[in-house]
Amino acid sequence: MTAEQADRKTDIRSLSREELTEELGRMGQPAYRGGQIFRWLHEKQASSFDEMSNLPLSLRGRLEQDYELCPLRIVEVKVSALDGTRKYLFGLSDGNVIESVLMRYKYGNSVCISSQVGCRMGCRFCASTLDGLVRNLRPSEMLDQVYQIQKDTGERVSHVVVMGSGEPLDNYDHLLRFIRLLTDENGIRISQRNLTVSTCGLVPQMLQLAEEKLQITLALSLHASGDEVRRTLMPVANRYRLEEVLKACRTYFEKTGRRVSFEYSLVKGVNDSLAEASALAALLKDQHGHVNLIPVNPIKERDFRQSERKTVEAFKNCLEKNGIHVTIRREMGRDINGACGQLRRSYLNEKE
Ligand code: SAH
To answer: Minimal CA–CA distance to 128: which of 91, 166, 173, 87?
Structure first.
């Protein structure tokens, strides 16, 4: 441990209810204190220990001394004039920045959060990965993206998708803590069924997740119907063959009863042909899943282009004809740097 880490106060919002209760017990506090403080942190989302009005003053002082809340700081909010989508740039306590997005749907408000600062998966079309991984986010830093957005808008968040920057399953332990805190009955109480975790396909972690007895949705970033094309877009395809990845999806479905969704970003001339669509339909025939088509959002560092509208429609029709359930992702916040990692990147470039 470095001196800096030793000095550091404990990140109280990353602790589970049980851990918090244990810590308070060690401080000689009665058993109910842990639960009380947990509710202040996660249900009422207190921004200081001072607000915790049913705790004795001396305890508030003690908490202040040993623990930190490390809230995120809003650096910038961009609001889409087209659909009210709000893109947030948040500052972390160590000076890094991350981004999150609030999307308003008929069924409720959905927040898309980041799980890492940067990413090391290297997907070719993705802006988050251009400078590699900086660090994992802590559970509290994932949570606070949701808390801050709910506070800023005054509107209830009902859905959370872990589809921002980073590979969530590459930050597995923190992700699991985050899920348990987000869905705790004494916290912000997002239903597990309203939480989606998206992965580029890390097989061992997908299998581990299948054993956690959760009711969350797993989304797999597929982007091709064969290994050869997939490898040109996603370096992770060199590590795990599609066959293994799809087998892990199947296991996830069998163990949890939850259908997997498959994301497919359409890149002009790379993965958008009808032959590719038929191959995809054959590949997913036994998966019970559903495909979400995303016209690729071009980033300036790469020359990938979006498929034409009619190509996207034809791709969709071909899948449907073969009995696959498909949606085309509605592009939200097109006018405000919608794609993963683009806002953070333009902010860092400006600062330089
Ligand atoms: N690492 C996770 C989650 C992050 S990205 C994963 O790979 O699934 C969420 C989705 O957006 C993924 O399917 C990703 O491949 C896709 N994506 C990233 N950048 C994109 C872009 N510029 N255009 C279209 N889709 C993109």
So the answer is: 166
